[in-house]
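Re: that backbone. C-alpha cells:
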C-alpha cells in the first residue's frame, strides 16, 4: 500500500502544523469462504508467504498499533475504496491528535483533529479541523503522505516482510515465531526508515510472531522492535479480518464536507 501509516499521519500532521520532528478494530475474525479449505504449506516460511495472497485481493479490514499510535481501516477493491483512521496515543508527541482519510474511486477526503494543540494555533490552521476536506486527487498524486494505489493494498507490507524471514518455526496451530532481517525489507510499510537506521545490526534479527486462520490467511503479525536512539522498545502489530466480506468506504455526510482550501495544498506540497 502506497500509504505508509506512519508516514501518512506524521507527514501530513507535520506539514499542517509546521512542527519539525513531530514523528520523533477488529476482533480478527474472518468470514469463511465456500469450498474446501486450501492446504497450508508445511514449510513455515512458505506458509507465511502463502498467507498474504488473500490480502492482494483487496477486500479486508485491518488494525494497526505502533510506537505512539493506533489505527484501523478497510480496503475494498470491488468499490475502489479505502478508509484509514489513526489516533496518536496520549503519551506521544502528538497526543490527542487523529486523522482520517477516505478514498472512493477518484474522490478523497481528509479530516484532522488537532486535539489540545488546536487551542494554541492560529485560526487559519484550525478552521477546517472539524470538517472533511474534499481533495483534488490530481493535486496530491505525487504526495508521499497522501498517494494511494489499490494495486498495492497491504498496510504492513507483509509479503515483503515474510520474504525477509531468516528463521521461523511453527509454534502451534496457525501460530509461527521467528526472526526477520528488516534491512532486507525496507519497502515494507510497517517499518520506519529512521528507526531501522538507529537499530543498526539489531535490525537484521527482529523477533516476530504471526497467526493464520484455518484457511491459511494472515490474521495477525507482531514485530518486536528494541529500543534505539530516541525510540523506546515497542511492538508493531497489524491484524487482518473479514477477508472477502469488508464493506466499502462511505462518503462523509455532505453537511460535514468542505472543499480543501488552497492553504491545504500548500501545506501538503
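Recovered sequence:
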Amino acid at each position: 500500500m502506497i500509504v505508509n501509516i506512519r508516514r501518512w499521519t506524521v507527514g501530513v500532521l507535520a506539514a499542517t502544523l509546521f512542527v519539525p520532528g513531530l514523528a520523533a478494530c477488529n476482533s480478527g475474525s474472518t468470514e469463511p469462504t465456500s469450498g474446501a479449505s486450501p492446504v497450508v504449506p508445511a514449510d513455515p516460511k512458505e506458509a507465511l508467504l502463502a498467507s498474504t495472497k488473500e490480502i492482494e485481493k483487496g477486500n479486508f479490514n485491518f488494525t494497526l498499533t505502533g510506537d505512539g499510535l493506533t489505527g484501523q481501516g478497510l480496503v475494498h477493491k470491488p468499490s475502489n475504496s479505502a478508509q484509514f483512521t489513526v489516533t496518536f496515543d496520549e503519551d506521544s508527541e502528538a497526543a490527542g491528535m487523529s486523522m482520517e482519510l477516505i478514498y472512493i474511486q477518484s474522490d478523497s477526503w481528509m479530516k484532522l483533529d488537532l486535539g489540545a494543540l488546536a487551542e494554541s494555533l492560529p485560526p487559519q490552521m484550525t478552521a477546517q479541523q472539524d470538517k472533511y476536506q474534499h481533495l483534488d486527487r490530481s493535486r496530491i498524486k505525487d504526495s508521499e503522505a497522501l498517494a494511494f494505489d489499490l494495486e498495492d493494498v497491504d498496510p504492513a507490507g507483509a509479503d515483503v516482510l515474510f520474504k525477509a524471514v531468516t528463521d521461523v518455526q511453527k509454534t502451534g496451530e496457525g501460530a509461527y515465531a521467528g526472526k526477520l532481517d528488516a534491512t532486507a525489507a525496507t519497502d515494507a510499510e510497517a517499518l520506519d526508515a529512521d528507526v531501522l537506521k538507529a537499530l543498526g545490526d539489531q535490525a537484521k534479527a527482529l523477533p516476530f510472531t504471526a497467526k493464520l486462520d484455518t484457511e491459511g490467511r494472515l490474521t495477525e503479525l507482531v514485530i518486536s522492535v528494541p529500543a534505539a536512539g530516541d525510540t523506546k522498545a515497542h511492538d508493531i502489530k497489524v491484524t487482518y479480518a473479514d477477508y472477502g466480506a469488508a464493506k466499502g468506504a462511505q462518503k462523509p455526510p455532505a453537511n460535514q464536507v468542505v472543499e480543501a482550501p488552497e492553504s491545504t495544498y500548500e501545506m501538503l506540497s
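The chain is about 15% helix and 30% strand. The chain has one domain: 5-20+42-268.
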